[in-house]
Amino acid sequence: MRIRLKVGLALGVVVLCIGIGSLVLYFVEDLDWIDSIYLSVMSVTTVGYGDKAFKTLPGRLFAAIWLLVSTLMVARAFLYLAEARIDKRHRRLAKSVLHRDITVEDLLAADINHTGFIR
């Protein structure tokens, strides 16, 4: 799968997790929309200032599963972002190597066993 597609899907899943958490917080914990979005983002990103918390039993049960899944999705999104940067760097390096002219010094350096042949 292409790196950009993986990054887009991972970020989409993170936004979806924040949205699901916001909906549950709004309806189960009786928070207003701003507070539910705030608590969702703070919980998923593991910042957790501690000013808001899950108070009801259904909310806590949901949070136990939701926080585990959401935190793993955020970690996966960062993994794919790092992979995209490394892939971009490798492509740039490969392009510069492939478009460089080969010199006699390069051929001599490639003959590591000094036989006059490159294997």
Automatic annotation (TrEMBL):
Gene Ontology BP, a term: stabilization of membrane potential
Family indicated by similarity: Belongs to the two pore domain potassium channel (TC 1.A.1.7) family.
The protein, known as: Two-pore potassium channel 5
GO molecular function, one term: outward rectifier potassium channel activity
Protein keywords: Calcium, Ion channel, Ion transport, Membrane, Metal-binding, Potassium, Potassium channel, Potassium transport, Repeat, Transmembrane, Transmembrane helix, Transport
Any one cellular-component term (Gene Ontology): plasma membrane
Keyword Flavoprotein: no
Transmembrane portions of the chain: 7-28, 61-82
Domain Potassium channel per the UniProt entry, residue ranges: 14-83
Residues annotated as signal peptide: none
Source organism phylogeny: Eukaryota, Viridiplantae, Streptophyta, Embryophyta, Tracheophyta
Subunit structure as annotated in this protein's UniProt entry: Homodimer.
UniProt topology in membrane: Multi-pass membrane protein
Organism domain of life: Eukaryota
Entry-linked InterPro entries: 2pore_dom_K_chnl, K_chnl_dom
Principal location listed in the UniProt entry: membrane
PANTHER family for the chain: POTASSIUM CHANNEL, SUBFAMILY K, TWO-PORE POTASSIUM CHANNEL 4-RELATED
Location of this chain's protein in the cell: Membrane
Species in which this protein is naturally found: Senna tora
